[in-house]
Amino acid sequence: MKRLKSTLSCFLLVFLFTLSASAQKGAIRAADRAFKAKEYFSAVELYKKAISQNPKKEEKARVTFQIAECYRLTGDIKHAEDWYAKAIKAKYDDAIALLYLADAQMMEGNYDDALSSYQQYQKKVPSDPRGANGIKSCQLAQQLKNSPTRYVVINMAQLNTKFEEFSPAYSDRRMDELIFTSTRQGTSVDKVDNGSGQNYSNLFVTKLDKNGKFSAPIPLPAPINTNEAANQGSATFDRGYRTMYFTRCPMIKNKPERCKIYSTDRRGNNWTDPVMLNFQLDSVTYGHPTISGDDQEIIFTSDLPGGQGGKDLWISHYTKKTKSWSAPVNLGPDINTSGNEEFPYLAVDGSLYYSSDGLPGMGGLDIFHAAKLGTDKWGTPANMGSPINSEDDDFGIIYEGTHDRGYFSSNRPGGKGSDDIYSFYLPPILFVIEGNVYDEDTHKGIQGATVRMVGSDGSDVSIKTDQTGHYMFGALNSTQRYINPNTSYVVSASASDLKYLSSDDKANETTVGKNESETFEHDFQLKKPLPTVELHFPAVLYDLNKASLRPESRDSLNYLVRLLNNNPTLKIELDAHSDQQGDFKRNIILSQARADTCVRYLISQGIDSSRLVAKGWGETKLLVSTKEIMAHKSKKERDSLYQINRRTVFRILSWDYVPKGHFMTKQDSLKMKAGNTAKVTGEESDTLGVPPVPLEEQQNMVPQKKGIQPTTPATPSTTPKNSATKPKNN
Hints:
By secondary structure, the chain is of the alpha+beta class. It is built from 13 helices and 39 strands.
């Protein structure tokens, strides 16, 4: 009896074990069938059921990997990362698990972990370029993230739902209508796609109103969207927006068929029956079409044999004679990689935009740009960087004509669903030059001052300061004056109508090489002289008892040249003063000659003579009296006080001079070339080549002084009268 019970127990155990193994095999086979049918949403549940039944170690590792694959192929990257790690821990023997783990870590932004996984994969499979490419991507991703471009990216919340929205396309000439792909509620098929776990995708249309708001999206009518099980998506239009090309992925007897590209024509609000493009093979997948600006080329994604690996971009040409498309040609290794290249877009200028996971990027699909070089030829693709690209899938970009704005798709965090539509635009680089114009003495702002901006691009604009003295060129809106990029500017301030002197102070600003908006600030100070006040400028030096200028005096007088050029309506009197040493009359003549010498130098520099008056005052306007000077015993102290009286100054006669249109009259020129070259001291004329005033003219320049009448002076000697008490220092 015991032996019978033992036999029955063993039989029961064997039966249960066999039954369990059979159930495991059944669940695994069912999961594998679902996976092969691309029913990943169903397959993952079947695989989980099978793994819960504790299959053998080797089979458990494979099933674990398959679960990770289901999550990857449905876009659930977080769960994919977890299950790839489990598969590796379970000793799954295919190194591809390491690669896919690294890819998932990249898409999760775990660049350090991803780098380690890529390095391990490269060691295991050194011949596969994806390992080296992944290492480069880890390094590049952080750089791109730390140095984002100026693009502004905005989630189009009014178009997005918790379901998938992607691949927008402009569908009219005004570019205010969008057709996009979505799995939202309200699609034409009341059935769930077991591949994604969402509704079958339809093409939806929405229109932008005058207030910039999109209308509620509605599905396109039949025969575009039908009640048959199929995914429709990724539309594009010809240049007339009459023919639409799109992707259709049908289900035949509940099994997915290869996707194909179709065309349909618009007839008002209706569409013709879609026609499959002629070059397509039954056994090959085609999708994501884009049409060239002349409607003669179509670029699309396909897994056609003979590519670079994965999905590649291919091109076909339209033949008008036969009204058919040519056999596709691969775009080659300059564009395609061993990874996947998808969602191409041809811009107005022929540039190619597309997404790739085989080029160094930030993770997942990144959007790349390649410039058009010639027939079927594009340049080296460039990553568009952050924030267009992210750690996740970024794809389906379009541009609004020639404008640097448009839309694209992404499943990045922060959206409303798995795939969302985002708008993007590149804000212009705007510059501002602003500041204040102050009164030099009161430090108050000057209202109504003129600020002038002259650009290297030929621009020349002037504006007035406001009530606070503030001015601004350019602003962050279109109503203000615009400052151009790659241009240098000189900004100056004046207020001659308010009787302020313009100075040499100028702001030199440049936008050359500037890649970001910037504000430049510069304040100006203007001086408002009193009508009777003498204005000083750097000392004009003469040799002893001479009217000839020293060479270094040019710098002093050039100050006046600049002042008069900066203030073209000024008329001035240039006053020369001597100290009280020497003969009174002789000091008058000497100071007049010095004033005339200064005036003639100004004329030689292009200042109109009618703006200038020369006046020699001798010792008639002393600043320090003889009594004050002689009170000092030190000769050095007395000499310094004499020096105060020896000065050349100017004062403003009027602010309303009207330029004659030229700087020097013929009479000015003749006067400079002629003239008596006699010297005040009998020495050579000055080294600047400007002859001193003739002596006969000097006699009439002596101003009347109370109690003294001018007389015809004798030629002064080199040794003045009373030289013991009045040394030759004038």
